[in-house]
Amino acid sequence: MPPIAPTTPARRAAAFLAAAAVLGATAVPAVAAPHGPAAGHAAHGHGGYGDAARLGYQKTVAITVTKRVFERGDTAVVDRYVRPDYIQHNPTAADGSAGLKALATSIHQQFPDAQYDVKRVISQGDLVLLHSNVVLVPGTKGASVIDIFRFQGGKIAEHWDVIQNVPDTTASGNDMFSTLSSPRVSQPLDHRLTQANQALVTKAFDELMVHKDLSALDRYWDPGYLQHNPQMLNGVPAAKAGLGGYFASAPQLTVTPKRIIAEGDLVAVHSHYVNYPGDRGAAILDLFRVRNGKIVEHWDIIQNVPETSANGNGMF
Fold first, then answer.
1. Which of 104, 203, 234, 308 gives 69 a disulfide partner, CB atoms 3.0 to 4.6 angstroms apart?
2. Which residues contact 210 (CB under 8 A, 6 or more apart)?
């Protein structure tokens, strides 16, 4: 939820980073390689062991592919877990598994010490979301990246991402990645509340961002909620001031949610923000944490939609 229009990152670094984030590799602790045809055949489920196993399988595949492709330069894993007709929405990358392998090889050769530190992973239905700190050159802050993967028949079939450079400082003093609300863990909790939390965030986002009703902050947000947007302070009063100013400066703003992904207490909203008619706008991923029926923490990533795309699919 940006208080102002998003900024444009440095061109060369952003181009490499956007390319590298096609499958955001990870520094998540090693996991066992997936086995079996995939539990990923089912598209959308809402409970039971089979559903949990399928979601776990999808997470494992996403992590396995990203780690082996970008940290090890292993492109054989693409043949095993990525469909040949892979659909790409990263505007700098071509469609298809062949394009992904070529890109991965190039990135690995240019940035052999790149680190993909995955901070949190959630999965729902046929989608997996990875939130990562991507550092191409050791010693730099890198970028905050969210990758979304769609699975089909147990393989990765489609990919979206949103990328934003990590700034040197933030208004709140909070970094772009940590979990500050209690309990301070990054994995999703309270899985029995997934549907309730998704419904709450969907309604809250619609009232606040789509309909621009600032009073929604009083109904759905904890007064002291924690903010990871680099330009925003903590708390509802700061959110009202920041968003109020943004709405006033962009009276023709339209916000169109494209997909919502929830697991436990974490709910992500992937949206297209357009400030005025004819504006290409921005791809924004808002990630919310819900505890005890209130939104208590927020992370986001903002990327301007470019004029051209290497694949013609658009970012959404």
1. 104
2. 255, 256, 257
